[in-house]
Amino acid sequence: MTNTAATSEAKLATEPPKIVWNEGKRRFETEDHEAFIEYKMRNNGKVMDLVHTYVPSSKRGLGLASHLCVAAFEHASSHSISVIPSCSYVSETFLPRNPSWKPLVHSEVFKSSI
């Protein structure tokens, strides 16, 4: 491992990564644009469908996917938007580990998963 890679990993371990909203690309992403969670807006902008999460193999295991989800859910919460967790990471990993976000899940999705 190079010193640069070790420094990057140490930085991620000590402080949360900065996640930015890229409205034009309809995604939340890391500052370097390498990791992201994509969404589609539905129901006239009242529902955010999280469709895909991507973290490059070189950055996996650092919690980036979870940070991306938190950014998307915080955005949805602050804008009174509900969420459809179409991405398997969101529905099968993030939400079970973070049940406090489940109230934001779009009611039609929540009812069908009971």
Automatic annotation (TrEMBL):
Gene source species: Arabidopsis arenosa
InterPro entries, per the entry: Acyl_CoA_acyltransferase, Gcn5-rel_NAT, GNAT_YJDJ
PROSITE patterns: GNAT_YJDJ (PS51729)
Domain of life where this protein originates: Eukaryota
Gene3D superfamilies per record: 3.40.630.30
Entry protein name: N-acetyltransferase domain-containing protein
Ranges of residues in domain N-acetyltransferase: 18-106
